[in-house]
């Protein structure tokens, strides 16, 4: 149930991200369209989430922003997952010197604080569009995942079925891709979701610090713009929705990860069994 | 026994020194990787922004950051290492000619106060509730706390801060709207009280958004530990449930949280920096905002170095605590 709600919320945002521009056309609004008759208006029938101090529609901005936030989230997560799999599985599978070097690099990135690191790079980049930001975030977000995958690969490598296949004479590539990787699928998908959320949060943080491009709108840029004006004028309809969307997405990834955790660590499943017993009694 | 502990810590020190060195080197390399002539680009941008001409000393300070093309890269690197060792981070551009080191020195105590109190509070509250939730998984408390903390830990710090500022500062007027203290009270008897008053809201928002993560981690470890045989034995012996819960289960479940502590401190610091901006709290975060919005690159790099080195230090402290409470690391060091 938890997992289904989580997947539902994620799917909802994904759909909005994909059909966003058409949805805005359908509603007859646009993120940059200015309604001079409705400046700083509270939610009404005409503007469902109200308008900003410039007279743009908050709902339209939210819909357009969903796309950019999701793009940053998924691009960064893909980069992060790929790096984590390559570095983590390689280190765990080959061991020895390869492991020593890769683990050292991983541990290093693990202790370096991500926000200052991202900021110092993003601060110098001239182009701060969503994809660039995603690249930078992905580049610094892989370390925790790599560490987990290394540990898991290390234990998988010594399991009987992998040993047996090795003795049969399977190639290394086949051992990694056919024997080891499928067993890491749960970890990898949990990691992916975690990274999506982390990247959406990081993007919002960077936008909040003023690192975003002026012609894109994302959940982060909406909060940033609202902060400067909406706060003092009590325009809650402007700054509440973007944060709430981030929190919803976060809750959804958390719920799905609960499910994945319970599949991988059966001890955590006690919670469900008890709930089931209660329901049956 | 003692030797093992020592060896473990020596290896950690070596690791942190290497990490600090790479952060310092990264800080040196990033500006120098910029293509073209970044100095003149930035000077032009600054002039456009402020509308006045930039003093030649400031141009020199920017030039120093991106590297003097006349000196070789190795010579530059050597000079740079020397200045870092002397804690000389150059001159700030936005508050020219104040040295960056001076600005950082003024901001650091505020950030340490904020991050220190909130981290300890969030850790204590989260871990405590996590023990309770994990003791009876699926129980009423767990069913309420786990989803709640999933939601809370997904909230962006600065957004929570905005809402808090709006509700408690603006609408209700319970707390001051910003700053770290009341300037009228500086050096007067009420000063400490005003510092506390200004600390409440930023600290509360950070604790509010941070404790959920600790709770979930501790809960999951508790669930795993509670089903261990030694816990069952403790119960079978007829020990009080409080004793089994804290001395048997929680004590063992706590270990990963201490490691987690080290990794989380970087995230908490990032969140705290953003929270400071919302509340105009006079710490490092506020400096960082100024640095980014006014393109004050020397200050930005100073903030990067300071925060990174502080986090490394905090990690080392967490490692040392871990050695003290987990006897197995001593064995492993042998």
From TrEMBL, chain A:
Q: Matching PROSITE patterns, A to Z?
A: ABC_TM1
Q: How does it sit in the membrane?
A: Multi-pass membrane protein
| Designated name of the protein | Peptide/nickel transport system permease protein
InterPro entries, per the entry: BP-dependent_transpt_permease (IPR050366), MetI-like (IPR000515), MetI-like_sf (IPR035906)
- Which family would the database say this protein is a member of? Belongs to the binding-protein-dependent transport system permease family.
Q: Where in the cell is it found?
A: Cell membrane
Q: Which GO terms describe its molecular function?
A: dipeptide transmembrane transporter activity
Question: What parts of the sequence cross the membrane?
Answer: 5-23, 71-94, 101-125, 131-149, 175-202, 236-260
Gene Ontology CC, one term? plasma membrane
Matching entries from PANTHER family are given as: D,D-DIPEPTIDE TRANSPORT SYSTEM PERMEASE PROTEIN DDPC-RELATED (PTHR43386:SF1), OLIGOPEPTIDE TRANSPORT SYSTEM PERMEASE PROTEIN APPC (PTHR43386)
Which coarse location class applies to the principal site listed for this UniProt protein? membrane
Q: Which residues form the signal peptide?
A: none
Q: List the Pfam families hit by this protein, alphabetically.
A: BPD_transp_1 (PF00528)
User: Which keywords are on file for this protein?
Assistant: Cell membrane, Membrane, Transmembrane, Transmembrane helix, Transport
In what residue span(s) does the ABC transmembrane type-1 domain sit? 66-257
Automatic annotation (TrEMBL), chain B:
Name the UniProt key words of this record, in alphabetical order: Membrane, Transmembrane, Transmembrane helix, Transport
* Coarse class of the protein's main subcellular location: membrane
Domain ABC transmembrane type-1, first and last residues per copy: 108-318
So where does this one cross the membrane?
Answer: 12-30, 110-133, 154-175, 195-216, 253-279, 299-325
**Which residues belong to the signal peptide in this entry?**
none
Q: Which SUPFAM superfamilies match?
A: MetI-like (SSF161098)
- InterPro entries the record matches: MetI-like, MetI-like_sf
Q: Name one GO biological process term.
A: transmembrane transport
- Domain of life the protein comes from: Bacteria
Where is the protein found, in the record's own terms? Cell membrane; Membrane
Task: Tell me which Pfam families the record gives.
Answer: BPD_transp_1
Q: What's one GO-annotated cellular component?
A: plasma membrane
Any coiled-coil regions, as ranges: none
Q: How does it sit in the membrane?
A: Multi-pass membrane protein
Q: What CDD domains does the record tag this protein with?
A: TM_PBP2 (cd06261)
> Which family, according to the similarity comment?
Belongs to the binding-protein-dependent transport system permease family.
Q: What protein name applies here?
A: Peptide/nickel transport system permease protein
List the source organism.
Answer: Nonomuraea soli
């Amino acid at each position: 149930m938890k997992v289904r709600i989580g997947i539902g919320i994620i799917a909802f945002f994904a759909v909005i991200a994909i059909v966003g521009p058409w949805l805005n056309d359908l509603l007859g609004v646009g993120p940059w369209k200015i309604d001079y008759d409705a400046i700083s208006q509270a939610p009404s029938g005409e503007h469902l989430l109200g308008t900003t101090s410039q007279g743009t529609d908050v709902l339209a901005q939210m819909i357009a922003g969903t796309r950019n936030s999701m793009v940053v989230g998924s691009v960064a997560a893909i980069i992060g997952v790929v790096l984590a799999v390559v570095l983590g599985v390689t280190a765990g599978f080959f061991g020895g010197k390869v492991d020593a070097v890769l683990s050292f690099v991983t541990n290093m990135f693990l202790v370096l604080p991500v926000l200052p690191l991202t900021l110092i790079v993003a601060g110098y980049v001239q182009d701060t569009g969503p994809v660039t930001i995603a690249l930078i975030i992905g580049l610094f977000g892989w370390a925790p995942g790599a560490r987990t995958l290394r540990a898991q690969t290390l234990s998988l490598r010594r399991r009987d079925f992998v040993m047996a296949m090795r003795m049969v004479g399977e190639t290394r590539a086949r051992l990694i891709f056919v024997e080891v990787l499928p067993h890491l699928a749960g970890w990898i998908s949990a990691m992916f979701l975690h990274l999506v959320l982390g990247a959406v949060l990081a993007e919002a943080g960077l936008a909040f610090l003023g690192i975003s491009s002026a012609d894109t709108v994302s959940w982060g840029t909406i909060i940033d713009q609202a902060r400067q004006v909406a706060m003092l004028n009590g325009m809650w309809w402007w700054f509440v929705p973007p944060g709430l969307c981030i929190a919803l997405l976060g809750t959804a990834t958390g719920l799905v990860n609960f499910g994945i955790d319970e599949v991988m660590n059966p001890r955590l499943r006690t919670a469900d069994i008890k709930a089931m017993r209660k329901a049956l009694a | 026994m003692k030797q093992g502990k020592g060896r473990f810590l020596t290896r950690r020190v070596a690791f942190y020194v290497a990490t600090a060195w790479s952060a310092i080197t990264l800080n040196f390399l990033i500006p120098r990787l910029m293509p073209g002539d970044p100095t003149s680009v930035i000077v032009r941008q600054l002039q456009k922004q402020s509308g006045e001409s930039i003093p030649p000393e400031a141009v020199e300070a920017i030039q120093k950051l991106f590297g003097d093309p006349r000196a070789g890269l190795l010579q530059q690197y050597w000079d740079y290492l020397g200045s870092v060792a002397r804690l000389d981070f150059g001159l700030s551009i936005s508050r020219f000619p104040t040295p960056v080191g001076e600005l950082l020195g003024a901001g650091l105590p505020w950030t340490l106060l904020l991050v220190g109190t909130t981290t300890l509070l969030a850790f204590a509250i989260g871990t405590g509730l996590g023990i309770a939730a994990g003791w009876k998984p699926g129980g009423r408390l767990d069913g309420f706390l786990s989803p709640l903390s999933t939601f809370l830990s997904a909230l962006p710090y600065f957004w929570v801060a905005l809402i808090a500022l709006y509700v408690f500062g603006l609408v209700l007027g319970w707390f001051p709207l910003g700053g770290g203290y009341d300037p009228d009270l500086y050096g007067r008897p009420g000063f400490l009280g005003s510092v506390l008053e200004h600390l409440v809201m930023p600290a509360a928002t950070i604790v509010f958004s941070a404790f959920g993560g600790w709770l979930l981690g501790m809960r999951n470890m508790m669930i795993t530990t509670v089903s261990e045989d030694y816990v069952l034995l403790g119960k079978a012996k007829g020990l009080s449930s409080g004793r089994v819960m804290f001395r048997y289960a929680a004590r063992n479940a706590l270990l990963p949280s201490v490691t987690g502590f080290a990794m989380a401190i970087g995230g908490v610091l990032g969140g705290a920096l953003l929270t400071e901006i919302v509340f105009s709290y006079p710490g490092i975060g506020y400096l960082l905002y100024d640095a980014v919005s006014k393109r004050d690159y020397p200050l930005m790099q100073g903030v990067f170095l300071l925060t990174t080195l502080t986090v490394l230090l905090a990690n080392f402290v967490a490692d040392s605590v871990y050695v003290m409470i987990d006897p197995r690391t001593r064995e492993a060091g042998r």
